[in-house]
Amino acid sequence: MEKMLVRFFLVLVACCFVRNGCGLNILGVFPAHGYSQYLIGSSLMTELARRGHNVTVIAPHRQNQAIQNYSEIYVEGLENFEADLNLFDLEKDYTIWKVYSLYQLGLTFTEHTLANKAVQQFLASNQSFDLVICEQFATEALYGFAWHFNAPLVMFSTIGPSEWISDKAGYPLPFSYVPHGLSKFTSHMNFIQRFENVYVHIFDIIYRNMFAYPTQNKVAQKYFSGIPHLDLIMYNVSLFLTNSHVAITEPVPVTPNVIEVGGLQISHRKLPKDLQDFLDGASHGSIYLSMGSNLRSRDLTNEQKMVFVNTFSKLKQRVLWKYEEDKLPSKQPSNVMIRKWLPQQDVLAHPNVKAFISHGGLLGSTEAAFSGVPIIGIPIFGDQKMNVAKLVTKGTTIHVPYNSLSEESLTNALNKILNNSKYNDAAKRLSSILNDQQTKPMDRAIYWIEYVHRHRGAPFLKPASLELMWYQYFAVDVLLATCTLLSIPIVIYCIISKCKYRIKDKLE
Question: Which residues are CB-neighbours of 146 under 8 A, at least 6 positions away?
């Protein structure tokens, strides 16, 4: 009897796994060197493994500990990519240069990943996969993994719906109110901003289609033997998961194959005792400072470091600072604690944290919004300026331009955040919106991943616009045909008139 019950239980469990789409072999490809991008990707892949899927991840970072059902193919050489560069210097770059640099960076990651010895050995193996999840970062040749394993492709974007996935997903992207992802605009642009936005978008489209995509196609042909033209793969993506939510980004028109899962990485844990005690003892509240995983506080000039040190030393609040060296350039104020790495989600979730000084990265912005913490934004590059601009319009954030950073500007911003309740109230409202979801972002992401497998790639989610050439999509052929049809009567009239006058002249 006991054996029968055990068998019944095992069968029941197996049925549940099959019904829920569990037990899939899933490949994740996350080529970007930024640890924050890897963090959100690995959060998804780790949860897939925890729910019974067999996961393999190709990335330039590693997990700190072994995870059941989770195997890694480490791409060495990218983890410390650009470590010798001071990324604060990028703050002055023009938007068009940022667009060009993004595609060059993506090409570097693509080549480095595919040329890696472990990756090549992996491709030569006889493994099979039910699904491929690939990060979107101007690395289109990596979609070749889906073709190689004959598996549906899910694209994972660490930002929201953007120009880099709109052409592949088939949704419209009106330049009139959708800012370019590397701009510093919101959806509410004046004429000058719209003028710049339109031409940045046009430059991006031309460069992407005339140079970036053809180059990525050559790379794909080089490393995937027999692969068809990349267009056949690039425009056949089953699903797009985007790290976004209207609470922290802005609403844009998307198609059913785009699912927003912003905040899926958020999962609070207990703080280490020293941090817990430090924040618990902050009777006047505390401030958290982090410039993210790519930007490093140690790369600030000594003058800029002293701006923070001097400002913090005058506060009654405690300050927790992600600082990548053992000590500050001057005596450390008694109310300041520095650490080379901090559990950001858990720090922001502490009730005594009253303000977050940030570079405006989307992960940190989402985590602050989730916990209802107002932000002082000092954006530098990428989508940071746009993220901060959007949060300013929501009333949760004060923008302190990097080139205007001083004790006065930082002190004024802190006084406003700490002493004017409107910023805290706005942050709490934003938190309420972000937390008011029918399903958790992680559950939603995994449901749709399993959905794609259950429905064999879910081709019915893709709009017909993906079948059209650009001149068909923008109805250029219809306009040309209309102009031609309208010109025919005019041409005929001109010919008849000319012939009529010639006949008349001859008769006379």
Answer: 132, 134, 152, 153, 233
Residue identified by tokens 């953007």 is 162
- Could you give the 3-state DSSP secondary structure of residue 14? helix
Name the residue type at position 203.
F
Instruction: Report the alpha-carbon distance of residue 439 to residue 120 in Å, rounded.
Output: 39
CB 139 within 8 A of CB 157: no
Say how far apart CA 117 and CA 126 lie, in whole Å.
16
List, in order, residues 6 or more apart from 129 with CB less than 8 Å away.
25, 26, 27, 56, 149, 151
Q: Decide if 244 contacts 159 (C-beta within 8 A).
A: yes
CA 162 to mean position of chain CA atoms: 9
Neighbours of 233 (CB within 10 A): 22
List the one residue out of 387, 302, 277, 354 whose CA is nearest residue 36.
387
* pLDDT confidence of residue 506: 58
For residue range 22-80, list pLDDT tens digits in order.
599 999 999 988 888 899 999 999 999 999 999 999 999 999 889 999 999 999 987 76
Q: Residue 354 — φ and ψ, nearest 5°? A: -105, -15
Q: What is the DSSP letter of 186?
A: -
Rg (the chain; Cα; Å): 27
User: In this structure, what DSSP letter does residue 485 have?
Assistant: H
In the chain, the largest separation of any two C-alpha atoms, in whole Å, equals 119
Residue by residue, DSSP assigns 411-475 as HHHHHHHHH-HHHHHHHHHHHHHHH--SS-HHHHHHHHHHHHHHTTT-GGGS-GGGGS-HHHHTT
Tell me the three-class secondary structure of 412-429, residue by residue.
HHHHHHHHCHHHHHHHHH
Whether the Cβ atoms of residue 345 and residue 367 lie closer than 8 Å to each other: yes
Is the model's pLDDT at 346 over the cut of 80? yes
How far apart (Å, rounded) are the C-alpha atoms in residues 448 and 406? 47
Poorest-confidence range of 6-20, 38-52, 300-314?
Answer: 6-20
Here the contacts of 229-237 (C-beta below 8 Å, separation 24 or greater) are: 230/140, 230/141, 230/143, 230/144, 233/143, 233/144, 233/146, 233/147, 233/153, 234/140, 234/143, 234/168, 235/167, 235/168, 235/466, 236/153, 236/462, 236/466, 237/143, 237/153, 237/154, 237/155, 237/168, 237/169
pLDDT digits over 143-183, tens only?
A: 999 999 999 999 999 888 899 999 999 998 899 999 999 99
